[in-house]
Design goal:
Elements: H1 5-15, E1 20-21, H2 24-29, E2 43-45, H3 50-63, E3 67-70, E4 87-90, E5 97-101, E6 106-109, H4 115-123, E7 127-128, H5 141-147, H6 154-157, E8 164-170, E9 176-180, H7 192-196, E10 205-212, E11 214-215, E12 219-227, H8 230-242, E13 249-254, H9 255-265, E14 275-283, H10 285-302, E15 306-309, H11 313-324, H12 326-329, E16 336-343, H13 349-363, E17 366-372, E18 377-384, H14 389-408, H15 427-430, H16 433-446
Parallel strand pairs: 2-4, 3-4
Antiparallel strand pairs: 1-2, 5-6, 6-10, 7-11, 8-9, 8-10, 12-14, 12-15, 13-14, 13-17, 16-18, 17-18
């Protein structure tokens, strides 16, 4: 049905006039995310608790309007875009850390808590929450769970789903359920927690998360390694892991990203380097020192030009600031960007690097790669001007080529950005028709009216 004034008035009664809007300026603010795409909702709603959300979803089923959950809107694949209008359900008012339990190493939080703020809060208690997406300073824990966000530390510690023990969720039909446990073990029934984590807000609205914590590592040290050949850098990553060393993170930047960052923030990186590895090592002080010596030995034998260990935490922060500046800096190369986050087995990173270089030469387009080399997660970017049809055609061809080659190498088409709307047409490249059909049946079981975040993944 068409979203009506009558429906909006009913929503006002649920959340209060101050916590919903259909003013054009407010609709614009919630019509986009980190993708260059805009879809206007009919209304924006800011619920304060699980009961508000349940009531809105029951209303949505009654009046057949769609609902799109949204955290900070930092997603890279359009998961929070209201593609069919309706209501955007903004979760930022549910932003409390409800409990940090040092005895049992768990925390209970609401979905609107900013990831970086939560990390700092638990560290003040001597604890550690490993997931660290690049958007941690503004993305929310609920959005991280919906997308199963990762980050540089995934090579050692895993991704968001590895730290979600349980959830409180409002189903699309309005029922409130609890999933999972608050214990280290629990195998009663289907694992609904893992099903909902990574479902991109299509199966339910997360209203509370029980998260697993770790003791805070005693020491963290950062190494920067400079290479004259990007292939050598990629091969070095595999050799480090082959030697049984598991760093906290291993990030890499290619020459295009190095030069771009230097123009953007002047961080002192060598612009003639073909590649840089940024390696964090954590643990006990003695353990960290031993690991650093072993990593230095591997890098030296591999032919690294230069190896430096950051002397202070401030030096390390400067290095990581440069790495995190890559994505916004890339617009130097063109007004538009296609950003993909493929994953290949670590041993296949050199093959993928060669493929990207060959495609760049073939198409004449600037292609930049950087990302989480430690777990094979490559952020592959094509810079272009979408107003030039020839460039768009070449870029689309390159994406197809990269995706096909990723699967040929035994990889996957998305490591942490999700599917959303930007990758939905590619799902059938990786997922079999029978598996997609099963996913559709699961979606229908959770959401028989099809009102929650439609148009995502299974389109």
């Amino acid at each position: 049905m068409v979203f009506s004034t009558k429906v909006f008035r009913k929503i006002e009664k649920i959340v209060g006039k101050a916590n919903c809007s259909n003013a054009k300026e407010d609709l614009l603010c919630y019509s986009y995310d980190a993708t260059p795409t805009i879809f206007f909702p009919d209304a924006v709603v800011f619920p304060k608790n699980v009961q508000d959300i349940s009531s809105i979803l029951k209303l949505a089923n009654q009046y057949e309007f769609v609902v799109t959950p949204r955290g900070a809107g930092s997603g890279m694949t359009g998961g929070s875009l209201p593609v069919n209008g309706g209501v955007v359900l903004v979760m930022t008012r549910l932003n409390r850390i409800l409990n940090i339990d040092k005895d049992n190493l768990i925390a209970v939080v609401e979905p609107g808590v900013v990831t970086g703020d939560f990390g700092k809060a638990v560290e003040r208690q001597g604890l550690f929450y490993p997931p660290d997406p690049s958007s941690a300073d503004y993305s929310t824990l609920g959005g991280n769970a919906a997308e199963c966000a990762g980050g540089p530390r995934a090579v050692k510690y895993g991704v968001t789903r590895d730290y979600v023990l349980g959830l409180e969720v409002v189903l699309p039909t309005g029922e409130i359920i609890k999933t999972g446990v608050q214990t280290a073990k629990g195998v009663v029934g289907y694992d609904l927690t893992r099903l909902i984590v990574g479902s991109e807000g299509t199966l339910g609205v997360i209203t509370s998360l029980t998260l697993r914590l770790l003791p805070l590592p005693e020491t963290v040290k950062t190494i920067t390694v400079i290479f004259d050949r990007i292939e050598t850098a990629a091969e070095t990553v595999s050799e480090i892991i082959r030697q049984g060393i598991i760093p906290r993170s291993i990030e890499y930047m290619d020459n295009a990203s190095i030069r771009c960052v230097e123009d953007y923030i002047n961080s002192g990186l060598p612009t003639d380097a073909e590649a840089i590895l940024i390696i964090d090592v954590d643990g006990g002080a003695d353990e960290v020192d031993r690991s650093i010596k072993r990593i230095q030995s591997v890098c030296t034998k591999s032919g690294a030009r230069y190896i430096k260990t950051a002397a202070t935490s401030q030096d390390a922060e400067k290095i990581w600031k440069a790495r995190k500046a890559v994505s916004p800096a890339l617009f130097k190369y063109g007004p538009d960007k296609i950003n993909e986050d493929i994953v290949v087995p670590r041993s296949k990173i050199p093959d993928m690097v060669k493929k990207i270089k060959a495609l760049s030469r073939e198409t004449g387009l600037t292609m930049v790669s950087f990302g989480h080399a430690g777990d094979g997660n490559i952020h592959f970017n094509i810079m272009l001007d979408k107003q030039i049809p020839e460039q768009q055609t070449k870029a689309d061809h390159a994406v197809d080529e990269i995706f096909n080659y990723t699967l040929e190498l035994g990889g996957t088409l998305s490591g942490e950005h999700g599917v959303g709307i930007t990758k939905s047409r590619y799902m059938s490249k990786e997922i079999s028709p029978d598996s997609i059909a099963l996913m559709r049946r699961i979606k229908a079981a959770f959401d028989p009216a099809g009102i929650l975040n439609p148009g995502k993944m299974l389109v």
